[in-house]
Amino acid sequence: MRVAVFSVKPYDRASLTAASAGLPIEWDWFEPRLDRHTARLAEGATAINCFVNDQLDAATLDILAHQGVKLITLRCAGFNQVDLAAAARLSLPVVRVPEYSPHAVAEHAIGLVLTLDRRLHKAYNRVREGNFSLEGLLGFDLFGRTVGVVGTGRIGRCVAEILLGFGCRVLAFDPTPEPELTRRGVSYAPLDELLAASDIVTLHCPLKPTTRHLIDAAALARMKRGAMLINTSRGGLIDTPAVIEALKTGHLGHLGLDVYEEEADLFFDDHSNSVIQDDVFTRLLTFPNVVITAHQAFFTQNALDAIAAQTVRNLTHFDRSEPLEAVVRA
Ligand code: NAI
User: Fold this and answer.
1) Measuring CA to CA, which residue among 288, 305, 268, 313 is closest to residue 6?
2) Domain identity same for 151 and 272
3) Residue 295 annotated to the active site
4) Using DSSP, how many helices (H) and how many strands (E) does the chain show?
5) Mind listing the pLDDT tens digit for each residue in 139-185?
6) Distance from the CA of 49 to the center of ligand 1, in angstroms?
7) Which DSSP symbol is given to 243?
8) Is the CB of 151 under 6 A from ligand 1?
């Protein structure tokens, strides 16, 4: 079976090649992002394999289906980039990797919390320059702080458990609460209450029409003055200009991002020799209390191996006409 892989990086090639050793899968590697202009690269492929910033809108899916593509595989958990209604209309099943390493993302989110709290991003540079002053590096104990976890699915659950280990008071909001977390000491609360009570708010819910700009000016106003906001989920959960305003007034004390609403034109590529045109993003980079990583939370060897294994399993099931796992439905 021929599989056209889009947005491919050397580490994807290595893990997919290793996971498919001995299996009848022929990979076609394409560095460009999938969209309606690049879809024709998949000519002759039975399946395609995509990542978070590939654009699987109706026009792109239409081109793929007409070229004979029969299966869409995602090497990620999120699927907000796919027009599922269009895929269903074209009888194109969409399969994903629902769980590869929730720990990878959860641990990265905690890494952002600790970096911002203890100013590690500033301390690293300072010490290298021979500046051993502690001025401006004052942090706070995580022990005893209230942390709000928005979304307690696979990743949010791990985050909550790590935070309990730090001795934090953990509040959570999720339309489907997890009883096991309540037993372990997490308190579920309505979102507004969580925002008002938390010293740190960390987002782990999916991006969908009802969660777009979940954190807007009104939500930010409800948060404690000086609170920390962490987003390792999807950029669209946050209204970035509103967050910038809150940072400028000092109402928002710290911001840690691994995702950004307009990341598709920036992340995963080296732009260090070009002028970044996104003025909202560059404004974010000017704040001393903002740390941004470029959609790196998933990026552990464990996660890459698990993504490749599930992707190959998804393709093999399809090839053998076996029931598909991890199908995404509208
Ligand atoms: P999951 O599906 O296991 O959990 C999502 C949880 O969010 C569910 O419990 C659901 O009930 C809850 N939820 C839905 N609507 C909500 C709302 N309005 N408010 C609060 N909670 C709500 O998903 P998982 O695996 O925990 O992933 C969470 C998100 O993390 C994904 O949607 C994806 O966008 C993002 N992600 C980011 C990665 C990165 O590298 N930065 C890697 C993997 C996932």
Assistant:
1) 268
2) yes
3) yes
4) 12, 12
5) 999 999 999 999 999 999 999 999 999 999 999 999 999 999 999 99
6) 21
7) H
8) yes
Residue with tokens 């987002």: 203
pLDDT above 90 as % of the chain? 98
The tally of domains found in the chain comes to 2
Q: Are 49 and 21 in contact (CB under 8 A)?
A: no
| Residue 234 is a catalytic residue | yes
Helix, strand, coil percentages for the chain (3-state, nearest 5): 40, 15, 45
For 30-41, what is the HEC assignment?
CCCCCCCCCHHH
Mark whether 263 is an active-site residue. Answer: yes
Give kind and range of the element (H or E) at residue 249: helix 240-249
Q: Are residues 241 and 322 in the same domain?
A: no
Query: Which residues does 215 contact at the CB level (< 8 Å), separation at least 6?
Result: 201, 203, 229, 231, 237, 238, 239, 242, 243
- Choose which residue among 182, 192, 232, 233 to substitute to test ligand 1 binding: the one with the highest number of ligand atoms within 8 A of its C-beta: 233
Closest CA to 262 of 287, 286, 234, 290: 234
Domain at 309, CATH number? 3.40.50.720
Quick one: tokens of 253? 């004390």
pTM over 0.85: yes
Q: Quick one: DSSP state of residue 322?
A: P
Per-residue pLDDT reduced to its tens digit, 19-29:
999 999 999 99
- Check residue 318 and report its DSSP letter: H
| Catalytic annotation, pick one of 96, 108, 254, 263 | 263
261, 148: one domain: yes
Are 163 and 273 found together in one domain? yes
**Sheet with 71-74, edge to edge strand ranges:** 26-29, 2-5, 47-50, 71-74, 94-95
DSSP letters for 122-147: HHHHHHHTT----TT-----STT-EE
